[in-house]
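Lab notebook, entry 258. We have the chain sequence and a SMILES string for adenosine-5'-triphosphate, and the next step in the workflow is to get a structural model of the bound complex before anyone spends time on docking refinements. Request logged below.

Task: model protein plus adenosine-5'-triphosphate, output structure tokens.
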Amino acid sequence: MAILEVNAIKKSFGNAHILKGIDFELEKGEVLSIIGSSGSGKTTLLRCLNFLETADSGRITVNGEVIFDDSTHTLKDSEIRDRRLHFGLVFQSFNLFPQYTALKNVTLALELELPRKMPKAEKKEELLKIEERCKALLDTVGLSDKYDYYPCQLSGGQCQRVAIARALALSPDILCFDEPTSALDPELTGEVLRVIKELKNSDRTMVIVTHEMEFAKNVSDKVMFMSDGVIEEIGTPDEIFNNPKSHRLQEFLKKPTF
Ligand SMILES: Nc1ncnc2c1ncn2[C@@H]1O[C@H](COP(=O)(O)OP(=O)(O)OP(=O)(O)O)[C@@H](O)[C@H]1O
Ligand SMILES: [Mg+2]
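Result returned:
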């Protein structure tokens, strides 16, 4: 069974039809890269998956559970929050809290999940567990010596790795990245891409919007080329990069920069 099924997702802003019917499936452990020129709707699609935008119509199913369809429009905030937890999202601009340390940035969401009323000793124990878990996640992204650093004391690549650890803390079924390296210079890009590759090796299901074509080629099971709000072509990296069928994709791949 597919871990993610997206059917006929449409989204308009005013009269502008941005997503015109998006359909795809992802199996557990698969990595999907989304490529396409600026304005083609890549970020809007990720935002619809993560409930940061509400699609106008269509259906999103995770692990067999319909988390969005036409009846979802009346959901309460708490229900939306629960459904959003299926996805972790890493943004281009990190979005870390500047006033908190790396560790606190990762633990915060889990701490907020704890019930308000809890015996003190029990709470202390839970907080310690959260701290241990989040330290281990920071270790995974290569930041074992930076727990107590503030974002302003970290490089862009390190900030982005904190953001990845933070997204992992909530144990999402699917981890989404929106151009995770486009704010970084090439050296720092490499360290973030390495972390994403390692996540693939540990069987993480991921959707990655990227302009890094070499990376998409190497890390993806599937590559989706979006153009003007539709999936112009979807296939294996070999099909998309070595044997593109649509004229638009052929033209897109000729461009030296995206
Ligand atoms: N909240 C919004 N209100 C109005 N228009 C929007 C909104 N969000 C996105 N759009 C429009 O939707 C279109 C697609 O935007 P989107 O950010 O999804 O593109 P993208 O493929 O991610 O581009 P890029 O590669 O530059 O990040 C753009 O024309 C944009 O102006
Ligand atoms: Mg975008």
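Notes for the group: The chain has a mean pLDDT of 93. Worth checking against the assay data. The CA atoms of residues 107 and 132 lie 9 Å apart.
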